[in-house]
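Many introductory courses stop at the sequence. We go one step further.
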Amino acid sequence: MKRRLVIIAAATLAMGMALAGLALATAGSGIVSVEYGRHTVQQFSTKFTDRDIVVSEVSLAPGGYSGWHSHPGKVIVAVSRGSITIYHSDGSTCVPTTYSAGDLFVEHAGSVHEARNEGTVAAVLNITYLSVPVGTSPRIDEAQPPAGC
């Protein structure tokens, strides 16, 4: 009986935490993501085993944005069309960096950011997500930082 109560309490706590995370997440708008492939690597590095590498094409319409998010592993992004501005919260300020077609950049695991298309044409990104836990999303929804971004 005591074990059953512990299991019910743990399940209730887990469910509450999941719902709280969803309530804090920021939604995106005008964004389309197409996963091109996924491959599980048995031993990606000495730190991780059984991780996925995910390759996607992401399109953001003019005025579109990703919503605040992070990634479980390192991400390599190539801008193939248009331009994209990445916002990072830095204490009390919001730091934007703009990348244009032909640019390549890296996002680090756990870095909370938002991508925005502030241009007049669709932005198309080719993205490789490294070290994604098997079968899970390469994106982790995050709450908007308090920096006024």
